[in-house]
Design goal:
Chain lengths: 288, 239, 320
């Protein structure tokens, strides 16, 4: 096992991890603000991936190009979902909200199964197999572009929350629901906005991911769990934490796949989740 | 019956309670008063086993109880109510009290009988089958008391139980406590802001300010104490 | 006789006489319904009684099934002995999970995620465990299907039906008895308001652990039944999160924490979905996944409009 191989795998892990991070960022934003456990998060990402495959197959458009319209559509979807389904549920007990999104997840996964069947689909762009060479290190072009898209989106979101008026309002709603209402913020509208933004993350992450893996319906629940692992490991409410957690998981998966067995990758992630839940529930960068 | 010796508690460097000592005689009613932030609730929580004191000791019937868990404190014979009432909303009024009764009663029928009689005593007999969530605030307070009484405590800790009650409701509850204290010898320690109730009930008053005991004595003595008047009661208080 | 007990007696008679009324297919459907009713009831003990949401209950079904199954496969030891091993293992697992969760103060969503993580971890673990057949699965020999061999739990479908019927009835009786007992009151108190429960002398840690252990033990029996009824176990199938969700569908739809909720939910769900599948097959539409979409829609509708489940609404109507 050469150093170069390990390095290559490591870099691939980091890049993939950044895309994971974007997906988890969407969840962190939703969970951190609206306090809703989006159990359909991975399923939404899978829908985005399928959307990219369909648009590529029929229109020949590169996933990075369709990422924007798909993201817009997902924003609307998230906004509507929050307004119509979830907002009425804010005052209900926690497991009720949970069940609601479990139901949405079940419908999504199986609707995908009905429409697309169980066989894997993917996107094959012309630069799919190209890579940049730095000495003996090979970096897949597609992977690099995907990671770049992820970082760009995350950065944009970060700036939005830090500097824009709406972003600050959303943070206020997250910190103090009652307080925000008292100062006249339309909290429900901001919740819907936030959910929409979370879906945008998922949409872009999906369009990026479809270049890296094949998509099948069962990927949905797998990604939901992965998103939760990342968010909890990285820390709830911390945007940097989501990205860091994503990279960590991406790297550990890659290394576990290399040194142990490919199928053992997720085992490592779950083991990590259990450890974090027990020893440092606020995650690496989160606040309690 | 209850003796707190120089108990202290700090939260992240902020000294909430410092070297507080007081006694609650058996069969007596003691009131714990003081301005907000004086440390009353912190003392209460130490007595009830919510957390342990950083220093000092608490003895109940000559046995140490400092550091015990809340459920162990209850088993030892101390019942408590909560400032913000915590009824078991999904259960009926009777079932709420039965939960308490099961501490001493091992059979369902025993628990039911005990609970029913306690509810009668507190004037909630007619409402025993109603869901606890449907009760008004004064009734919820009574339910809270009934539930604590069902554990057959020797000492009852009341945490601002009069808050939010109208004067007539307050007087009714005062009468209930007076009666239980007289008839069954139940010792009571109450934290209160409502002076009307404290003066009517307490045989002894302990005054707290900035985490320290600044006065102790009968209501008449305390009300005239210049330190108490300055920090809490004001000059115009009538007995 | 009260209205309720009369209704119950009629239902019992119906269920006992069922094999004579329906064919083999109907019997297998009934067995499946009762299987979900029983497993849902077992899950209900943890959630409905102690208020701990477990989304990884397939863990106990799987471990229970594999334990009894592997013992039978390797050493020919029958399910009656295997049952105890299965129960012991599952209780130990439940205790570990419960201890970790309660000691570290993990509850609500985090507890649910912890249970999912354990189930997934075990699923992948069993994929690599050769002693239980690995990903290829564990296949139990079926000696015969004609006569009732209770010792080895082999026989006609009728035997399995009556077994699961008995189990479901026993679970119902147990839960009914528990609800009215001190344990039931304490569990409900903990579920409603843990802090208030502690102030009434309840050692909430100990009681929560008890609920978890009982639920795990009951679910392990489900696993043993599953192993000897279907005679094949695959980690991917048995420990899958879809299984865990299937387990909770009945209780959630029927009514979490209620006595009859899990059973009613299992009946409604299976009957409706089977009818739907039949209808669609008759129309020529055989689409994989449509049954699950249906489950999801029903779950959505119930959660939105009947948040306490179907049973409370039905009981109110029938004035039981």
């Amino acid at each position: 096992m050469s150093v170069d191989l390990v390095l290559n795998v490591l870099i691939a892990g980091v890049l993939t991890g950044l895309v994971y991070g974007l997906m988890a960022l969407g969840l962190s934003v939703i969970f951190g603000v609206v306090r809703v456990v989006n159990f359909a998060h991975g399923e939404m990402m899978t829908v985005a991936m399928y959307a990219a495959t369909v648009l590529f197959a029929n229109l020949g458009l590169d996933p990075f190009v369709v990422a924007l319209p798909v993201a817009a559509a997902f924003f609307v979807f998230g906004y509507v979902l929050q307004t119509a389904l979830i907002n009425p549920f804010i005052t209900r007990p926690e497991h009720s909200q949970f069940m609601l999104l479990v139901a949405v997840a079940i419908v999504m996964v199986n609707a995908l199964l009905m429409v697309f069947g169980p066989d894997a689909r993917n996107v094959q762009v012309d630069y799919q197999l190209d890579s940049f060479e730095i000495g003996k290190i090979l970096i897949d072009k597609a992977r690099l572009y995907a990671a770049f898209a992820a970082v760009l989106t995350a950065g944009g979101l970060f700036l939005f929350f830090k500097h824009s008026k709406t972003g600050k309002a959303i943070r206020a709603c997250a910190d103090n629901y009652l307080g925000a209402k008292v100062v006249g913020l339309n909290v429900k509208k901001y919740y819907a906005l936030t959910f929409g933004l979370g879906c945008v993350c998922v949409a872009i992450a999906g369009c990026a991911m479809v270049l890296l893996v094949d998509v099948t319906p069962p990927l949905g629940p797998a990604y939901t769990l992965l998103a939760f692992v990342i968010v909890i490991v990285g820390g709830l409410g911390s945007m940097g934490g989501a990205l860091l957690g994503g990279v960590l998981i991406g790297v550990s998966e890659a290394l576990a796949g290399l040194f142990i067995a490919p199928s053992a990758k997720s085992m490592f992630s779950f083991g990590l989740l259990i450890l974090v839940l027990l020893l440092r529930p606020q995650g690496l960068l989160g606040k309690r | 019956m209850l003796e707190a010796k120089a108990i202290a508690k700090s939260f992240r460097g902020l000294r909430a309670v410092h070297a507080a000592s007081f006694e609650v005689p058996e069969g007596g009613i003691v009131g714990l008063i003081g301005p907000n932030g004086a440390g009353k609730t912190t003392i209460f929580n130490m007595l009830a086993g919510v957390f342990a004191p950083d220093a000092g000791s608490i003895f109940f019937q000559d046995k140490p109880i400092h550091g015990l868990r809340a459920d162990q404190v209850c088993s030892a014979g101390i019942g408590r109510t909560f400032q913000i009432v915590k009824p078991f909303a999904g259960l009926s009024v009777l079932d709420n009290v039965m939960v308490g009764a099961f501490l001493r009663e091992k059979t369902s029928s025993g628990a039911r009988n005990l609970s029913a009689s306690i509810l009668e005593k507190l004037g909630l007999g007619a409402k025993r089958d109603l869901p606890a969530s449907s009760l008004t605030l004064p009734d919820r307070k009574r339910l809270e008391v009934a539930r604590a009484l069902a554990t057959r405590p020797r000492l009852l800790l009341l945490d601002e139980v009069m808050a939010g009650l109208r004067p007539t409701e307050c007087d009714q509850l005062v009468a209930v406590f007076r009666e239980i204290n007289r008839a069954e010898g139940l010792t009571i320690l109450l934290i209160e802001h409502v002076m009307r109730a404290v003066m009517a009930l307490a045989g002894q008053i302990v005054v707290l300010h900035h985490g320290e005991v600044i006065a102790r004595g009968t209501p008449e003595q305390v009300v005239r104490d210049p330190a108490v008047l300055e920090c809490y009661l004001g000059e115009e208080t009538e007995v | 006789m009260t209205k309720a007990s009369a209704a119950l007696a009629v239902l019992a008679a119906l269920l006992i006489a069922l094999p004579a009324l329906v064919g083999n297919y109907g019997l297998s459907v009934a067995t499946l319904i009762l299987y979900f009713a029983y497993t849902g009831q077992a899950w209900n003990v943890m959630m409905g009684f102690a208020g701990q949401l477990s989304l990884g209950h397939a863990l106990y079904v799987g471990v229970g099934g594999y334990a009894a199954g592997a013992i039978f496969y390797h050493w020919g030891i029958g399910p009656w002995a295997g049952l105890w091993v299965a129960m012991a293992l599952c209780v130990a697992l439940g205790v570990v999970i419960g201890f970790l969760a309660f000691r570290f103060g993990i509850s609500g969503v985090y507890f649910a995620l912890l249970t999912i993580a354990f189930a997934e971890f075990t699923r992948i673990g069993f994929d690599h465990l050769d002693w239980t057949g690995g990903p290829g699965g564990l296949f139990l020999k079926v000696a015969q299907r004609d006569t009732w061999d209770v010792a080895n739990f082999r026989g006609p479908p009728l035997m399995y039906y009556y077994t699961i019927l008995f189990l479901t009835a026993a679970a119902l009786a147990l839960c009914a008895w528990l609800l009215k007992s001190r344990a039931g009151y304490y569990w409900q108190a903990i579920r409603e308001n843990e802090e208030a429960a502690q102030a009434l002398g309840i050692n909430t840690f100990r009681w929560k652990m008890l609920a978890v252990a009982l639920s795990a033990a009951m679910t392990s029996v489900s696993g043993v039944f599953y192993a000897f009824y279907y005679n094949n176990l695959f980690p991917e199938q048995v420990f899958n999160i879809t299984r865990s969700i299937e387990i909770i569908l009945g209780p959630v739809i029927g009514g979490v924490g209620t006595l009859f909720g899990p059973i009613l939910g299992a009946v409604v769900l299976t009957v409706l979905s089977d009818s739907l599948t039949e209808l669609l097959a008759a129309l020529g539409w055989e689409i994989p996944g449509i049954k699950q979409v249906f489950y999801g829609v029903v779950l959505l509708a119930v959660v939105m409009f009947l948040p306490n489940g179907i049973w409370p609404a039905v009981a109110k109507r029938l004035r039981l």
